[in-house]
Amino acid sequence: MAFYRKKLYEPDSKEFFKVSRSKIDLFIECPRCFYLDRRLGIGRPAGFPFNLNSAVDSGNFRVQKFTSTGVYLLQWGGQGSEGEKFVRPWGIASDSLNNIYVVDNGFHAVKKFNSSGVFLLKWGTGGTGDGQFSKPNGVAVDQFNHVYVADSTNNRIQKFNSNGVYISQWGTGGTGDGQFKLPFGVDVDAEGSVFVADTSNNRIQKFTNTGIFVTKFGALGVGDGQLQFPQGLEVGTNGIVYVADTLNNRVQQFAKPCGRITVIKKVDPFPDSKDFTFTRNFGANFLLDDDNNPTLSNEITFEVPSPNNNFVITEICVCEHNVAITD
Questions:
Q1: d(CA 148, CA 215)
Q2: Residue 107: CA atoms inside 13 Å, Cβ hemisphere, count?
Q3: How far apart are the first and last CA of the chain?
Q4: How far apart are CA 265 and CA 49, in angstroms?
Q5: What is the pLDDT along the chain (327 residues), one digit of tens a residue?
Q6: Beta-strand pair 147-151/233-235
Q7: What span, in angstroms and rounded, lies between the C-alpha atoms of 137 and 178?
Q8: Would you state the torsion angle of the CA atoms of residues 219, 221, 222, 224, taken in this order, to the nearest 10 degrees?
Q9: Phi and psi for 36 in degrees, rounded to 5?
Q10: Residues 162, 156, 228, CA angle at the centre, nearest 5°?
């Protein structure tokens, strides 16, 4: 396995400095964070250092808060639709300021509280328009405090800022890539990728934070890696995906998934050698897997030098841990 070496910006260098699309997004969201990452080599932490947990108690119309060892701290809620009350609380997530977001499935809304349970705001009504919901379930918050809501019976994911202002959405009803049948769970990894439990399609789908389909895994069944009506999911700071495989009465753990890239042209055959060099701006060495698919670090098109010609491969696998960048 090869290892990644971070390439930092040198102001005195006369060479062009290339950055990935994720780093461009980082610059747009947080220029200071971009400077620390690309100039000083100080990256963002993998996740938020939470040591308190909040749990939705749906049948009791409340949220309960515990320490990480399960010691009860406080609660808030009650049956109703106004303020801190709930019709059917379901999904829950917290942001970098320890604010709590609760999806009220029965009220077709998201409610925001501070860490003490003080009601701050709510957004959403029943409907199919931008910012409206139909039986929403899961909610997740990324490192920029963007809020992602699984708008379940509208078969889509909606994205908002932390004040409930609508940003974008993706998904339609169906079985194709990027389509959903009753999406329940949603989570965001440390790199900003969005994972969705596509519940009635018995699979997990992965997207960029702008809703571009990346990959999927899972199929109906009871075997390893198969799912039946998966609802909840959580992505650890190491990229491991944990899935509540609901009707199989189990939790399954998946390795950090690879993505797929569609590129322009393919020339056969692949070279026989397992190791060779891709040309990409400043050059990068990559490894072919057992199926002769190259493992790459970014979701972009790569040209592959071969003894006879440069060629571009379709369906390239993306696995960031298998990349070594050279000058």
A1: 18
A2: 24
A3: 19
A4: 45
A5: 333 345 676 767 767 667 665 666 566 556 656 666 777 666 554 333 334 567 888 889 999 999 988 999 999 999 999 999 999 999 999 999 999 999 999 999 999 999 999 999 999 999 999 999 999 999 999 999 999 999 999 999 999 999 999 999 999 999 999 999 999 999 999 889 999 999 999 999 999 999 999 899 999 999 999 999 999 999 987 788 999 999 999 999 998 765 443 332 333 444 443 333 333 322 233 344 455 444 443 333 333 433 334 343 333 334 333 322 222
A6: unpaired
A7: 18
A8: -30
A9: -60, -40
A10: 115
Residue type, 284: A
Q: How far apart are CA 138 and CA 145, in angstroms?
A: 16
Residue 66 contacts by C-beta under 8 Å, 6 or more apart in sequence? 52, 53, 54, 55, 72, 73
Q: What are the start-end ranges of the E strands in 78-175?
A: 89-94, 100-104, 109-113, 119-123, 139-141, 147-151, 156-160, 166-170
63 within 8 A of 77, measured Cβ to Cβ: yes
Total residues belonging to the chain: 327
Distances in Å between the Cα of 312 and the Cα atoms of 39, 182, 270 are 32, 37, 11
- Among candidates 175, 202, 198, which has minimal Cα distance to 185? 198
Could you say which DSSP state residue 153 is in?
A: G
Task: Tell me if 183 sits within 8 A of 157, measured CB to CB.
Answer: yes
CB atoms under 10 Å from CB of 309, counted, come to: 8
Rounded to 5 degrees, what are φ and ψ at 24? -65, -40
Residue recorded with tokens 């990935």 = 20
